[in-house]
Amino acid sequence: MNKVLLEKAIRQQNTNIRPEIKLLLCCTRTFIDEENSKKIKILLKEDIDWKYLLEIAYWHRVLPLLFLTLNNTCSQFVPTDVLIYLQRYYFANAQRSLFKSSKLVKILNIFEENAIPVIPFKGPVLAATTYGDIARRTFGDLDLLVHRKDFLKTKEILMAQGFEPYADSSEKEAAYLKSLTVQEQNAYLRSHWELHLNDSKEQITLDVHQGILSKQFSATYNTEWIWKDTKVIAFADKQILSFSAENLIIILCSQGGKDCWRSLNRICDLSEAIRTYPQVNWEKLWQRTTKLRMRRMLLLGLSLAHELLDAEVPETIIQKIADEPVVKSLYSQIIMQFYYPTADSLPNSQLKIALFHLKLIEHPWDKTYYCYEHIVVPTIADRSFVHLPKFLSFLYYLIRPIRLMTDHIIK
Fold first, then answer.
1. Side-chain half-sphere of 38: how many Cα atoms within 13 Å?
2. Helical H segments across 114-200, by residue range
3. Residue 330, C-beta contacts closer than 8 angstroms, at least 6 positions apart
4. Cα separation of 63 and 83, whole Å?
């Protein structure tokens, strides 16, 4: 669809959007004002396809918010079986969240005992601080940020506690990673932004980060700007390090951009953060994103949170969004795939994701670096695809582009 047709479709969205989509947008927020409450009651009078609503809410990982809003606002208009399903999911999610929160506290105690500074983010901390309740948000892995100098030490400490490195993409890659010697694993980790760790006995997976985004996004790989602007917050009777409000917004926008904003829960995270921290220093935020060359990432995230979930952003930001044609184009693309989801519209192939990222990256050098890291630098998948002796390891730089091309042709 070309740009003109895309913009025309967006202008006609109010009459063409399915009522289930409209209802989901009204429900996926922690605070329901009078206006949204009226919209929900009006929408519930339409012929709602409840099966479809539950499916898209599950896909977007917002079932807890959907349940709370429907249950607290107008449960009498919701079919009993739907409400029961949502209630069961909500309590099951609450149980899982409490379990993972308790595990996170134990892991944080390990860091404290070893005098390693750590910032837990996303997961239960984000749920507690921005949603007000860990049961309102779904999450899987526990994410931790450490200094680059502590990255390998962290791996050793956690492995001594029963965790093992794993690859989250395939068993073959996981087997390859485990087959590496300690020296080979350390060499691999020095060039990667995160380490996946799994404790099968405790049923906990960790993502330990030394960067917020991968090296492909060169501007955000260095995290000193984060560590220089932290704060201490209370979590589960502990005092823990957390991001400043400005950095939290930047990080949420970068995480959403990395995932091409495919799921609504990412937009909810950002919207709730803006609601929770009304005293955000927007000038400081803009200056920081300018220095980091992340203005497009910021503006795209804020435009989605503002338009879809009514997040309050300053007029100066709204004007900056209007003045940035690439952001407007990406916004329209995301809105279309959200309002009219099809398998073809989602950026679910490596090529589509890469093209999205390249539009989001604003500096020419960063685009070049992204292409180099994405197309040339070998990954675990490439190294597990074929085992080469050390003296032939340079051939992996040829295998990488060939594998990418082959995978794209097959898909």
1. 3
2. 123-126, 151-160, 171-179, 182-190
3. 296, 300, 356, 359, 360
4. 11
User: Using the 8-state DSSP alphabet, how is residue 136 labeled?
Assistant: G
**What token pair was written down for 69?**
């809003």
* Both structure tokens of 378: 């070998």
Please list, in sequence order, all residues whose beta carbon lies within 8 angstroms of the beta carbon of residue 397, skipping any fewer than 6 positions away: 376, 377, 378
Residue 366: φ, ψ to 5°: -65, -35
Q: How many CB atoms lie within 10 A of CB 383?
A: 19
User: Cβ of 405: how many Cβ atoms within 10 Å?
Assistant: 12
| Predicted local confidence at residue 401, as pLDDT | 77
Reduce the DSSP state of residue 241 to 3 states and report it.
strand
Decide if 311 contacts 305 (C-beta within 8 A).
Answer: yes
How much is the pLDDT for 5? 45
Token pair listed for 341: 């989801």
Tokens of 344: 């073809």
pLDDT means per 10 residues in the chain (411 residues)?
Answer: 46 70 95 92 93 96 97 92 97 95 94 95 94 93 92 89 74 64 66 80 88 71 88 92 96 94 96 96 96 94 96 96 95 90 65 90 88 80 75 78 72 59
Helices (H), 224-323: 224-227, 245-258, 264-276, 282-292, 295-309, 315-322
Contact 359/330 with Cβ under 8 angstroms?
Answer: yes
